[in-house]
């Protein structure tokens, strides 16, 4: 072998080692996305080796990367949660525990830095889609035979068998399926434009499967409220005004038809009015009625400490104090640690300062996804979905929706920034 051939072989080996060095962290992130719809513990175990692999990347530009608002604002919100323990009246275990839901936001700057430099983000999206597809198919099986539900074996306490709930709960499941169904629209359109009808047909079948599961098997009311708004928002963003209006009319007609053919959907819609009447007229605990009561009390808590709030972990103790005045009203005697609204959750604990940080984070991440391409479409969808569903839940701090936000914004954000830098 000549010297030139030896040098070329050595160079190819070095290139392979270098590429493997950066593929490994991406594989761990893909594993996290694969496990997210199914298991909490598995995700945490996959997170540890990814953090170890991340430490071996080229981190010379990492400190400068952290100074950008898209990275600095998640860190600022976590720092605020840590500082909020200093003025909270809650017991220290509750203060420390309340930092955890916000702490996952620290992963966003790491993911942005990684996927801005190494183009393996499609692995993560593919893993999440494949995992949700398997979950969707399993959910149909559980709808036929509820005894197949994994919750029967994984739940720590007594579990009531529910049709279609494969694992965890219907809120997380609906969140994942709605995201996948809408995210598939962009690749379907792109494939059709490229003349790849077969691939587009496969993705279309998957999207219909996700929607059919929500329509005929199980759907959360949060998804039922926010899904039409998401469709309308993206129609306005990506279609001309006339086409968007036609799409809105078609969606309204489709909704009426689906209500006519889906008893499950009619039951879910009717539950809004039933819950409201049960709470307002009878004073009973219910989903919608309880939310209204949580929001009313939370607004009063915010008014008591508008600037810096009551401190990290103070929500449960505040509701406990308010419950003492509830007397025999079961609705007013409820003690919760979650007001089921992201803005109110932040405002009660950290006041106006926290709310400003929260909305600055959302809008900074929205601005990151201005442009064309799959990464921008997925990232924009994830941020808008989180903002809408956070009106009825604390989805930035909840486990599954929060990790969807972290992974989606981190991976898609890095890919979008890399694409913009390449064009520039």
TrEMBL record:
GO terms for cellular component: membrane. The keyword Transmembrane helix applies. GO terms for molecular function: ligase activity. Keywords: Ligase, Membrane, Transmembrane, Transmembrane helix. It is found in: Membrane. Residues 208-358 form the O-antigen ligase-related domain. InterPro entries: O-antigen_ligase-rel_domated, WaaL-like. The keyword Membrane applies. It is a multi-pass membrane protein. The chain crosses the membrane at residues 28-57, 69-90, 120-144, 176-192, 199-216, 222-239, 244-262, 347-366, 378-396, 402-419. This is Ligase. It comes from Bradyrhizobium nitroreducens.
């Amino acid at each position: 072998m000549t010297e030139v051939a030896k040098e070329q072989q050595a160079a190819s080996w070095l290139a392979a080692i270098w590429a493997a060095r950066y593929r490994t962290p991406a594989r761990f992130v893909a594993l996290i996305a694969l496990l997210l719809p199914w298991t909490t513990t598995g995700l945490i175990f996959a997170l540890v080796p990814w953090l170890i692999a991340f430490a071996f990347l080229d981190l010379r530009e990492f400190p400068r990367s952290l100074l950008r608002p898209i990275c600095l604002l998640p860190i600022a919100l976590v720092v605020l949660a840590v500082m909020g323990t200093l003025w909270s009246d809650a017991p220290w275990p509750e203060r420390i525990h309340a930092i955890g839901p916000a702490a996952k936001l620290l992963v966003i700057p790491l993911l942005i830095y990684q996927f801005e430099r190494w183009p393996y983000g499609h692995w993560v999206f593919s893993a999440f889609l494949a995992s949700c597809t398997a979950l969707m198919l399993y959910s149909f099986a559980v709808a036929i035979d509820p005894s197949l539900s994994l919750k029967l074996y994984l739940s720590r306490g007594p579990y009531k068998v529910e049709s279609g709930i494969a694992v965890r709960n219907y809120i997380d499941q609906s969140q994942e399926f709605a995201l996948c169904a809408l995210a598939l629209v962009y690749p379907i359109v792109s494939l059709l434009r490229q003349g790849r009808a077969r691939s587009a047909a496969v993705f279309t079948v998957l999207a219909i499967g996700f929607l059919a599961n929500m329509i005929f098997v199980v759907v959360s009311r949060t998804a039922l409220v926010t899904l039409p708004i998401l469709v309308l928002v993206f129609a306005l963003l990506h279609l001309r005004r006339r086409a968007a209006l036609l799409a809105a009319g078609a969606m309204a007609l489709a909704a009426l038809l689906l209500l006519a053919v889906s008893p499950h959907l009619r039951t879910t819609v009717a539950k809004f009015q039933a819950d409201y009447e049960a709470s307002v007229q009878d004073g009973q605990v219910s989903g919608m009625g309880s939310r209204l009561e949580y929001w009313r009390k939370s607004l009063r808590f915010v008014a008591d400490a508008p600037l810096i709030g009551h401190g990290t972990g103070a929500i449960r103790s505040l509701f406990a104090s308010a419950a003492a005045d509830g007397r025999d009203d079961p609705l007013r005697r409820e003690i919760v640690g979650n007001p089921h609204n992201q803005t109110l959750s932040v405002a009660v604990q950290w006041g106006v300062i926290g709310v400003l940080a929260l909305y600055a984070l959302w809008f900074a991440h929205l601005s990151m996804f201005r442009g064309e391409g799959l990464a921008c479409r997925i990232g924009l969808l994830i941020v808008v979905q989180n903002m809408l569903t956070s009106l009825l839940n604390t989805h930035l701090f909840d486990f599954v929706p929060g990790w969807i936000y972290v992974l989606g914004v981190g991976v898609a954000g890095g890919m979008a920034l890399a694409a913009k830098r390449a064009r520039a």
